[in-house]
Design brief:
The protein has one domain. Strands 1-2 form a two-stranded antiparallel ribbon. Helix content is 67%, strand content 2%.
Length: 300
């Protein structure tokens, strides 16, 4: 039963799908990816990006469509199972595409954001609280920030392991809806992370192994376009809300996901990877996406 008392079918025979006129069943998560990649392609054309970017951007929605067509028409049991997992690496590609739209940061906005951070870190005592036990809490926060990359995989695995594979697309509707909406906004708010924009202010006292790994990943694999809204926080909270929606009978799992998401948010602010405004914006975006789906379910 769902939290509103509606039955959720337990059959694992198929995923919810939207059937196109040519007979191909698209899962809702695939339609979200298709919409996002189409948006990037239009943006690349409108901003007259290099030909290579425009071709790559145009190719992504075609690739998503082709995969759905091929698996629907010729798929086997193993390919249907693999299809459950394909959207996760595509989310990473979606994030990297944002780097195609790099532009000059808006300094005035960053000055306002860092002013709010001073209040949170010092007047509200977040900085002192995190460092009250020496390197212990900072290490936990950095570890949670690093583990962000596996949280969606763990949530999806939870659905498979609990025998609720038929609800995978319910999970993706929130994960991809919240995450891709946050990504879509990034090119419109160019900004630098506080660790680069304000390198001498509010930096963490402790730098353990997990922070060193996080910094290496960010320096070599992260985008340079923007930090608003926070992609990390969007993924973390989208995963938690998605798991809550897809697996309501296991509240302990979603509570653990929410706890991890909150720690990721705190880590972004304390570690100066993001301004607090970045994470709060992502949390609001994801909450709106989740609320919209809940409202539509009530009136369905």
């Amino acid at each position: 039963m769902s939290r509103f008392g509606k039955s959720i079918p337990l059959s694992t025979a198929s995923q919810p799908a939207v059937v196109a006129r040519w007979g191909t069943a698209f899962r809702a998560g695939e339609l979200l990816l298709l919409g996002y990649f189409t948006y990037v392609a239009v943006l690349a054309m409108a901003e007259h990006r290099a030909l290579g970017y425009r071709l790559a951007a145009t190719g992504m929605p075609l690739l998503v469509s082709a995969l759905a067509v091929a698996e629907t028409r010729h798929g086997q049991k193993w390919s249907s199972f693999l299809r459950d997992w394909v959207p996760l690496p595509l989310v990473l590609i979606a994030y990297w595409q944002v780097n195609w739209f790099d532009s000059a940061p808006l300094v005035a906005r960053q000055l306002q954001w860092v002013a709010w951070d001073r209040v949170i870190l010092h007047q509200f005592g977040l900085h002192a609280a995190v460092e009250s036990l020496g390197p212990v809490i900072p290490a936990v926060l950095e570890f949670c920030y690093l583990m962000l990359y596996v949280i969606p995989f763990m949530c999806l695995a939870a659905l498979h392991l609990t025998g609720r594979r038929q609800r995978v697309d319910r999970f993706y509707q929130i994960l991809l809806g919240g995450t891709l909406l946050a990504y879509a906004l990034l090119p419109h708010f160019p900004s630098l992370p506080p660790r680069l924009a304000f390198p001498a202010e509010n930096m963490p006292l402790y730098a353990g192994i997990f922070r060193k790994i996080n910094l290496w990943v960010l320096d070599h694999l992260d985008i340079a376009t923007s930090v608003f809204p926070s992609g990390h926080v969007a993924v973390a909270f989208s995963s938690a809300f998605g798991l809550r929606r897809a697996l309501p009978e296991r509240p302990g799992l979603s509570r653990a996901a929410f706890a991890a998401a909150l720690l990721v948010f705190v880590a972004t602010v304390y570690g100066r990877y993001h301004y607090a405004a970045d994470g709060l914006a992502s949390m609001a975006i994801v909450a709106c996406v989740w609320g919209l789906h809940e409202m539509l379910e009530v009136h369905a």
